[in-house]
Amino acid sequence: MGAPALLWPPLLLPLIIVLFGQPPGTSAQNQACSVTSEYFEIKENTNVSEPLANISVPNGQQVSLGSSSTPSAFKIAGDQLFLTAIPDYEENPLLEAVLECKTGESVVTVLRVFVVVQDVNDNAPEFPFTIKKHDVAEDTRVGSIVIPGTELEAKDADKDDTLIYTLQEVTPDASSFFSLVGQNNPALRLEKTLDFYKIQSMTLKLLARDTLEEDKNPSHTATATLVLNVLPADLRTPWFLPCSFSDGYSCIQAQYHGVVPIGYTLPSPLILSPGPIYAVDGDQGINQPIIYSIVAGNTDDTFIINADSGNLTMAKSIPRPMTFTLVVRADQVDMARYSITQAIVDARNATGTPLQFSRNRYHGTVVLGSKAGTEVKDRTSPSEILRIQAQYPGFPDLDSATTYQITNSSDFKMEEDVMLTTVAMEHVDTFYVEVEATNTVTMDTATTVVEIQVTEQEPPITGTQGEDQRFSTVDMAVLGGVLGALLLLALICLCILIHKHYRHRFNCCSGKVSKPPPPLSVYDNLAFFPDHKASWLSTSNPQPQPDPETARPPSGPQSPMSSSLTPPSSAPPSPELRAPGSPKTVQAGDSPLAVRSILTKERRPEGEGGYKAVWFGKDIREEADVVVLNEPAAGVDSASASGSEGSDEDSPNQSYI
Questions:
Q1: From the Swiss-Prot or TrEMBL record, what is one GO molecular function term (predicted)?
Q2: Per-residue pLDDT averaged across 8-32, rounded?
Q3: What is the distance between the alpha carbons of residues 594 and 445, in angstroms, rounded to a whole number?
Q4: N or C: lower Cβ tally within 10 Å for the chain?
């Protein structure tokens, strides 16, 4: 921004005369030095190479710069005055040249030339810090000034500049918590309630610009970083754990439950559900220590609570079944805040509840070569330690008073519920170790057997040891793909073989409706009848061609197997339907030769001429006679032989020769 309007030269010159006095020798003399101008205005940072003024010097006089001139700012060359320095408003806003005209050593005339330096915006503002860290208490009231403006102001060497301040967030949502009081006042103000557990620190950038308009030229901007650390305040009471948070300042307190046997004083802290009595300062950033106490419900002072740990123990036995509702208080060590919860303890009769192991027999394993002190692992889960535990169902507090010992072996020992070796395992072997559990409160005992196998190899790899597996997942995937391809290839080959050898059975079982046999002339068995002299050698009587009426197939649809499975009727054909000269029907008692042949259209394999034929007696249940017709006899009409073919299907009583 520019400097304010300077005083006009006519007004400034009298002021200079008042300040510095009337130059000597300036009386109305005809023979005196003079300059073309005694006042100049130049913007700072301007390099002036032309003469600043011309000096008129009378004959016999000399002109020089006086000692009171601004050092290193002017020079005289001939009868001209030059400005040799680049003016800087911030360094010297007014330059003065004192010209002395002399005759010999006597000063005749003194002239003063003034250069007023005009200010321009050539300096950027500067903050007194680069990064400023400041702590803000979590309970600071909204609207409060967090950092005063005097601590955040920037300085600008351009004295007349007015700085504009802005705030930019670095931490997301930080600008919703803090703002500046004004664009010319950088004081930082809190706009929203702080929460230590949501945001512990926020970073913002503070900018100072020396122009009102951001796009004005020239314009300069300074930047500094503000780091605001949120300090926790004592806003929350102690919280009993576990608890369900309802908001950031309170939680639903836990209630504790336990069961103790009557007639016994348990030496250890009670086992409570969902866990031991434990509270923490709700202001975790402050984390005041907690002090515990029982304020109500402790009938006959039966229970004692440890003030530091919160462990609840029994001071005496309970004579009868009853329920204790203990009111437990947790105070901060500074006693500023506290919370209260309940611990409900049921005293029950433990009679009839025996001490018992969780398994009838335990199975352990030890690697061959293990040294003494090695833990026995669980054979069913080799990566885990075998734990042998005896319990009172329903009384977990009694379980903590149970001790264990081995009664029949010196090769192993018990440490609490874990079994260790006492010697090196140098041989493959199987041990059967008896473990006895004794409850120190009830003095009950129970025994169990542990079968321990000493194996030569490490336990098998489990799912949690994937990095030690011999084959990777990629290897197994490739192997599966190869096996799948081989299986598919085998199935294709199997299908081809089945189709090649059993396709005729697939055809006969296709379920198609049987078609009427074609005319006898259709069957042209050239291989079976090489010439016209063929004759049947298996019978002495020629078989005449059946009557067209009797050879007609049934009109209704039949299954593919019906023609070959249906036996011929034993009743003789009626005279009106029998053709003259047709053979008689086979009756009971007739010769075995008096049978009827059934021929199929199926040829024998290549190289073996003939058809297969099945011969039935009167009773279809009788054993079938199979005759292979390798070469037909002469004298039998080929049409008659062809006419015997009537089925594509195999009969249950037919066979291939």
A1: calcium ion binding
A2: 49
A3: 97
A4: C
